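hey so i finally got around to running both of the ones u sent me last week. sorry it took forever, my laptop kept dying halfway thru and i had to restart like 3 times lol. anyway pasting them below in the order u listed, first the sequence line then the structure token line for each. didnt double check formatting much so if smth looks off just lmk and ill redo it

first one:
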Amino acid sequence: MSILKNPYFLLPALLFWVNQYLERIQAIFIPYLYSYFDDLMAMPVVLGTTLQIYRWIHPLKNGFVFTPVQVMVGLVYFSILFEGLLPIWSSTYTRDFWDVGCYLIGTVYFYFLINRNRA
């Protein structure tokens, strides 16, 4: 099954889009959703999109899945970049270690519900 048809991928992608629409177009900011929802949805959306791209180009096609190490590298990369480095480089970003917890939850969601062998 294509990741783009997987309901476990479509739900976070849709919720992420709706949240962005409310914040950026409608200027509606719900406090905890504004602070943490995008971080919670980020890993399923980013890793799911990346997995789909790999499936288009990898010989295993829909049989390709990320290993636990590859998924953890994604989690560590996001955590270091968005919670460590970007707040140092730009005042646009705020260091919030609760975001790392959101990335972790999203990564676990991705690993068990989206990163499946559907060949």
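and the second one:
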Amino acid sequence: MTAPISSEAGSLPIIFFIPGAWHGPWVFDDVRSILSARGFGTEASSLTTVGSIDPRIGVLSDAAKIRSALIKIIDSGRELVLIAHSYGGLVVSNAVDGLGLRQRISKGLNGGVITILYLAAFAIPSKTSLLAAVGGSYLPWWGVSGDGFVTPTNPADVFYADVETSLAEKAIASLKPVPIQIVKDISTFDPWNNGFEVGYIFAEEDQALHISDQRGMFAQFPAGSFSASLSSSHSPFFSMPGALADTIEAATKHALAKRLSK
């Protein structure tokens, strides 16, 4: 566990989790419990696309839902650390324009996002789609149906290779289809090029988003951005929630130190 954050930093920020495609916010329950025991408030949101019956909705629909949830917290004057997993990275990038702490302070407003942590997540440039980011073709494990939805065909290996069997089975049973539109929508905002503090948490043994791709996305971030590695599959919130909580706490300390130095 990292050293405690000094009370001189003021009220601790709220840690807000955004899941990836097919998953619900319950996947973060264990890491949220650990962080709560350390004094952090936590929140997590579902995505509109997960389990949707409308094949036309995609990234922007998910981003609108997340943005609405963030605004409610920020407008109360609170500061946020955002943890975005997998496809959730694309969602959060498109949800935060105008919500950064520096942007808010420049307008005389309190509260805001102090950092975005991409957890084995897509951090792609604006004017790019997820499909383009993976090379322009559907990935082999994307099971695309004729009615416009996609489900993972081998989640046990792709997502949960190091997860305890009963928990992996529970996770697999809870997966829900998403519209294939999520890979086609064009991203409209890249926070790292617009004044946001960002960081990346690498999953070294990831079979869904290869570590080389994760590192390539991190290479876009400004010098001095936080990074950390976990020797996990795509789902460290299941296989090593304690180590993930430690990493989130370290990233929060990093962001608070940079915030207070400005």
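quick thing i noticed on the 2nd:
The longest helix spans residues 241-260.
anyway thats it, ttyl
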